[in-house]
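Bench notes, afternoon.
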Amino acid sequence: MKKAMINSVGAAMLCVTATVQGGELAGSAPFQFRYAADLSELPAEVAPKVPGAHGGFAVDNKTGEVFFGLKGAGIIWMSNDLTEKKVLPVTEPLILEGNFHNTTILYRGDGERFLALPDNEQHRVYIVSDEGKLVSVLNSPLDLNDYYGGGGAFNPTDTEYADGKLYVADGYSAGNFISIADPWTASWTDEYFGGKASGAREYGLFGTAHGITLEPHTKRLAIADRANSRVQDFDFHGTFLENVNLPAGSLPCDIDFYQSFVLVGCLRGPQGYTSAPCYVVDKDGNLLSEVNPKKDFGLELFTHIHNAAWKPVYGENGKVEKLYALATAWNPGGFAVMEVVR
């Protein structure tokens, strides 16, 4: 992402809702969205857990499968076409007692697939198999620096796997560091970067390092600095590269990439506590489209969006047949699938 400014006036101008056959469309072409009610149902046994949802999605771009960690429920698996959903049989109490704040897929060198689940309430990161079996736990990196060594809180909010390492965003702590681990030995390296910013002009530091995402084409780490309504790019060694500002007060929780297009899930609307949007932004930071699930589709739970992710549906030839956006709401929780109509 290149340095750019997205202003709230432009965002408002791009928001278009039209009634068409099959339901309402929201947003601007080529990213107009339709609410897919038939795909937005979760298994009945997890329904009581949804109001407390934080969580987020890990989309496997090799298989199209989706994994969604949900507090108190475990891990929800979804098929490539999103028509099948099931709860993985997680039985380890250690995993279920905390709060899954996001979900990340890791492929080991031998091709085995695992998941990383940051738990901001129990102060640790779980590495589990793709069947829900606990493999290892990363606790606070006490030897990393004086902050953790002095008893500073470790409240991880997101992880990303890149360059054979697990990057952990400690967004809900006073430290706001990005710590780096070897997930296969369940050990911390001596590398870290970031820290708490005192203002939005301090690049390389964070108000809330809430989400971290690998930008696949440039091999950068894009970090959603929620409190400062911006996204900052870093290399794998923690060198600050670029900054993209979002509308003031929009509080981006996380971002996701599809080709050169960025999906941004926001905790608030740009005017504060108005219902929250998802923005679609290009690689230069220009706003292309906006969808507001509460305002556009009447989804009353979606005052606050906690996570949003692109979901390509792959055909047998490996080509993308459909494109969806997945979204979770917070306080109360909710889950929605929105189809990109082309």
